[in-house]
Amino acid sequence: MIKSVWVIDDDEIYQMIIKKLIGRSQAFDEEHYYKCVLDVFKDLESPDFQLPDVIFLDINMPQMDGWQFIERLRELCPDLSAKCNIYIVSSSIAYSDKERAKKYPEISNFLSKPVSVEVITEIAEAVNKKTRCRDQA
Amino acid sequence: MSPTSSRKPKLVGLLAAIFFFALGFFMLWQRYQILLETRDREMTGIINVVEKNIDQSLKYSYSAALSLALQIDRDGKIKDFERIASELVDENPNIDAVQMVPAGVISQVYPYEENKDVIGYNILKDPTRNQEAYIAIDSRKMFFAGPLELRQGGLAIVGRLPVFIENEFWGFSAVLIKFKNLIDQSGVEQLATDKYRFQFSKIDPVGGKEEFFLGDSKNLDKSYSEEILMPDGDWRIYIIPTEPHQPLNAVIPVAFLILLMSAALGWIIYNTMKQPAILAAKVRKQAGELAKSELQFRAIFNQAAIGMARVDSNSGLILETNKKFQQLLGYSNSELVYMEHTNISYSEDKDENIQLMNKLRNTEIREYNLKKRLVRKDGEIIWIKLNVSALWSEGEKATSHIALVEDISARVKAQKERAENERRFRSLVENSSEVILIIDSNGFTRYSSPSLERITGYKELLVAENEIFSLIHPADSSILIEKFKECRDNPGVAFPGIKMRLQTKCVKYIWVEATITNLTLDKSIGGYVVNFRDITGKQEAELNLVRSYDFVMEQNKRLLNFAYIVSHNLRSHSSNLESILELYGIEECEKERKNYISLLHNVSRNLDESLHDLNEVVSINNNLDINVETLQVSDYLEKTLEVLQLQIKRKNVRIKSQVPQDMKIIFNASYLESILLNFLTNAIRYSHPDRDPEISVKGYMQNSSWVLEISDNGIGIDLKKHGDKVFGLYKTFTDRKDSRGVGLFITKNQINAMGGKVAVESEPGIGSTFKVLFK
């Protein structure tokens, strides 16, 4: 089965890094990188568009932050938490951000940068397990 | 009242009444007798006249009968009867008829016609009449028979003269007088008047019974009558008073009068005699009461709770004292009696008392009151209330007076203490820095402590005229009105902590903290008690404190925000560095490794840029001694527009500037330049692609502070979405590559650092308005 991932982050350098890491982990079949959040919503308008299994989401972005993104996406896809596992990947180590993340059921975990290949592999496995359970059920 | 004294007047009265009654009746009796006698005498007189008149008539009759008898000759023959008879009857009005009655038989009569029926009637043979005829024969005298009913009719008397020839009875010569005629002749009718009546009676020769001929009073009451007997006819003539009891009737009212008068006299005497007895009883009663009241007075005098002394008004010597008086002064009664009253008087108070006593003695006044001091036997001075009243009656000479003495030392002491307290409290109130007002329910100031003038400069404040409200800062007056209302509805409850600004006489506002208590029900206050004190210093300190607190909090917030930014931005670079180095470590391909090195260059450049931004922010916030000066905004605006000239031309921007020349602010020059440049650059950069940019710059005063307003018709910002992030660091709202999210953050920090504020109004697609509120 095909596993897809989105990376949403405005940091160009980070984007390059995470692309290498995901590539090395070989955990995902399909990758998509968004530097600008608003592009996600542009793509969502096309009819054959599908949500990925995993989203790596930054918090601090211009135009729209990570929280606003989740809220907006929730409005468009009501079954968001069932279909998609959102991981916050932020350079923030602020306690308030971690607390806030717990209030969103869509968020599976809060990861502080930098992330390693192992972490990405673990996430992919966890998502696999979850999907299997859901399919069996 | 004793029994003897009451019986005596009664007896005397009764006796007097009886005596007067008896005397009166005796006199009345005499009078009555005189009345009776007078009447008898009158009756006798009248009846004598009647008798004379009748006698006269009879005498005429006798001479007529005799004249007639002389016509009879020796042989018993009657000569010339007709002639003589007519002469006699016609000439003599007393005679109605004449008859010749030989041997008792009526043979001739004149006037014949009227009397012819009796011819031939033998009177001697008539038993009803012959008796009187025989009387005449026997007595050989003329005898009048009747009155009798005539055969020829009518009532008459008949006078018969027996005629004898040679001692031989011949017959009668008779004269007939009508009874009515006889009565007329007697004059009875004229004499009788209405006072008397007459009666004519004769004893019936046959029955021996008295027969009456006049009127209807057959049953004659002879008790008051007079009578005469006429022997020629055996008649009786009575005179009878028509009202036999008239004299008695005349005296009866008098008798009643006497009865009444004597009763009245008896009553008067009784009462007159009784008066002294009543008076005596009264005197006894009053004497008893006097004794009782004297006793009561004694008891009051001795037992009274206030000191009493009787003092000789002339000599000023004390005559007697009661127990309380002795207790008050510590002397015994015997010590006090005959002591001069001035001896116990406090020397300073003596004169006034003596003057008043002189007035009393001279009867100018009847009593007086005085507060004075007395000296006890042990030397202690006591305050007393003295009341002196004269004991002699008005108009009399002065004898003695009574002095009532009440110990008021405690009261005087309390009063002094009260006055002292009052003075102390007053001085406390008056010297206090707290203002105290008493305002009555009409809003007038009843009392204001001197501190009012000290603090506010006003001598008094009127609530009624809304004066007080005009002095309160407009923002605070509603609170005061509210509190006054609450206070009005909750009498007795103090409403403290009312903070407000009050305008003083020198037009400056001061902060006061007031407490209002509604004491309108408290009679000694009768109003609202308002006390307030100047807390301007305190209030300003407090406000400064609040401001400092706000400032610190704001700083803290900014610091937190800054720390967040710093950590976030620096960490993003450090995490990138870490990741790149990690990847570099495991990369085998030399080309890729070179690639990572160039990436490291980028990261380091970004890091440097971030540090530069942060440094700028830190320098704005930390530069406390930054140079400020008075700047004319319009000058700086002009300069900025000059700098932007090229862009303005390129984009065809219309600038509308309405910044007044007098808009001068205290600000840092380079900050102002930066701010103007930033706003204007933004307004030009984020212009709407469908229209030419229009920018309006306005300067105006609001709440005595300058405001700079910069409006554009650009693309706008969705404030619902981004409201709190507009001025955030690294926040951009467009997808333009040249937006770094630093400009507004720096601008806001610069404004804040100068004590100003910035606000934004915007609508996407229409435009934005930024307002800078200068300090």
UniProtKB/TrEMBL annotation, chain A:
<protein>
    <submittedName>
        <fullName>Response regulator</fullName>
    </submittedName>
</protein>
<feature type="modified residue" description="4-aspartylphosphate">
    <location>
        <position position="58"/>
    </location>
</feature>
<dbReference type="InterPro" id="IPR011006">
    <property type="entry name" value="CheY-like_superfamily"/>
</dbReference>
<keyword id="KW-0597">Phosphoprotein</keyword>
<dbReference type="Pfam" id="PF00072">
    <property type="entry name" value="Response_reg"/>
</dbReference>
<dbReference type="InterPro" id="IPR001789">
    <property type="entry name" value="Sig_transdc_resp-reg_receiver"/>
</dbReference>
<feature type="domain" description="Response regulatory">
    <location>
        <begin position="4"/>
        <end position="128"/>
    </location>
</feature>
<dbReference type="InterPro" id="IPR050595">
    <property type="entry name" value="Bact_response_regulator"/>
</dbReference>
<dbReference type="GO" id="GO:0000160">
    <property type="term" value="P:phosphorelay signal transduction system"/>
</dbReference>
Automatic annotation (TrEMBL), chain B:
<dbReference type="InterPro" id="IPR000700">
    <property type="entry name" value="PAS-assoc_C"/>
</dbReference>
<feature type="domain" description="CHASE">
    <location>
        <begin position="105"/>
        <end position="192"/>
    </location>
</feature>
<dbReference type="InterPro" id="IPR005467">
    <property type="entry name" value="His_kinase_dom"/>
</dbReference>
<dbReference type="Pfam" id="PF02518">
    <property type="entry name" value="HATPase_c"/>
</dbReference>
<keyword id="KW-0812">Transmembrane</keyword>
<keyword id="KW-1133">Transmembrane helix</keyword>
<dbReference type="InterPro" id="IPR035965">
    <property type="entry name" value="PAS-like_dom_sf"/>
</dbReference>
<dbReference type="GO" id="GO:0004673">
    <property type="term" value="F:protein histidine kinase activity"/>
</dbReference>
<dbReference type="GO" id="GO:0016020">
    <property type="term" value="C:membrane"/>
</dbReference>
<keyword id="KW-0418">Kinase</keyword>
<dbReference type="InterPro" id="IPR013767">
    <property type="entry name" value="PAS_fold"/>
</dbReference>
<dbReference type="InterPro" id="IPR006189">
    <property type="entry name" value="CHASE_dom"/>
</dbReference>
<dbReference type="GO" id="GO:0007165">
    <property type="term" value="P:signal transduction"/>
</dbReference>
<feature type="transmembrane region" description="Helical">
    <location>
        <begin position="12"/>
        <end position="29"/>
    </location>
</feature>
<keyword id="KW-0808">Transferase</keyword>
<feature type="domain" description="PAC">
    <location>
        <begin position="368"/>
        <end position="420"/>
    </location>
</feature>
<feature type="domain" description="Histidine kinase">
    <location>
        <begin position="565"/>
        <end position="775"/>
    </location>
</feature>
<dbReference type="InterPro" id="IPR036890">
    <property type="entry name" value="HATPase_C_sf"/>
</dbReference>
<dbReference type="Pfam" id="PF03924">
    <property type="entry name" value="CHASE"/>
</dbReference>
<dbReference type="Pfam" id="PF13426">
    <property type="entry name" value="PAS_9"/>
</dbReference>
<dbReference type="Pfam" id="PF00989">
    <property type="entry name" value="PAS"/>
</dbReference>
<feature type="domain" description="PAS">
    <location>
        <begin position="421"/>
        <end position="491"/>
    </location>
</feature>
